[in-house]
């Protein structure tokens, strides 16, 4: 009789563990998807804000065309990546937006009148606020993926993961930094925009 009670207790405990672990996997995958959507929303917000910033600083016509082309391409890629829910595409698109922001910032920094204009300062603050939200969304997504992957790979939760077909998720990867924007003193004195 005691053996039956012990076996029943073990079975109930195992079933409870399986249920709790399964629910963890389901909830975490759902949170990862929601966070991916939030990251896409913040990247779209940042990309949609760029034309306003470019209009505010009233860039001269030669450079304006190149910057608007960069902005348009970056916005298109952010929207495409957001629709596809693809982390790699989102990071590449975010990099393009950051390059456009860098080009605009070089122009603002090289023009003392723009640098101190209240409307430009407000635009930069809004852009900085959005960038903070993007970074928070990235950090949360990275944490969620790490948490899921640790449980998928760790024992004994990996047994439950295998039973129900849960797999590790690919996290965010940084784009190749060799093409990162760098600004020389000469570029600061005479800014030129090059489409990367």
Describe what this molecule looks like in 3D.
The protein has 196 residues and is mostly helical. The protein has one domain: LemA-like domain (de novo design (two linked rop proteins), Up-down Bundle). The chain has 7 helices and no strands. α1 (2-57) runs parallel beside α3 (87-109), α1 (2-57) crosses α6 (157-164) and α2 (61-84) packs antiparallel against α3. It is elongated and about 90 Å long. The N and C termini lie far apart (76 Å).
Largest sheet: none
| Share of residues in strands | under 5%
CATH fold description: de novo design (two linked rop proteins)
Taken together, the total number of domains comes to: 1
Structural class comes to mainly alpha
Please provide a brief summary of the model:
With 196 residues, the protein is mainly alpha-helical. Helices cover 80% and strands 0% of the residues.
Keywords:
196 residues; mainly alpha; de novo design (two linked rop proteins); 7 helices
Give the topology, please.
Layout: H1 2-57, H2 61-84, H3 87-109, H4 112-116, H5 118-153, H6 157-164, H7 185-189
């Amino acid at each position: 009789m005691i053996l039956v009670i012990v076996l029943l207790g073990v079975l109930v405990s195992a079933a409870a563990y399986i249920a709790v672990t399964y629910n963890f996997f389901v909830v975490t995958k759902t949170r990862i998807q929601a966070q991916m959507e939030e990251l896409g929303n913040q990247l779209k917000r940042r990309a949609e804000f760029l034309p306003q910033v470019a209009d505010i600083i009233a860039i001269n016509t030669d450079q304006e065309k190149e910057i608007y082309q960069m902005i348009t391409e970056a916005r298109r890629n952010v929207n495409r990546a957001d629709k596809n829910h693809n982390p790699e595409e989102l990071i590449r698109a975010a990099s393009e937006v950051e390059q456009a922001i860098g080009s605009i910032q070089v122009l603002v920094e090289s023009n003392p009148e723009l640098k101190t204009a209240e409307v430009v300062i407000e635009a930069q603050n809004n852009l900085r606020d959005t960038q903070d939200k993007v970074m928070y969304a990235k950090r949360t997504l990275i944490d969620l993926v790490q948490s899921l992957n640790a449980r998928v790979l760790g024992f004994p939760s990996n047994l439950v993961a295998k039973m129900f077909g849960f797999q590790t998720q690919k996290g965010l990867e940084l784009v190749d930094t060799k093409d990162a924007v760098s600004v020389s003193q000469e570029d600061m004195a005479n800014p030129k925009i090059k489409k990367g």
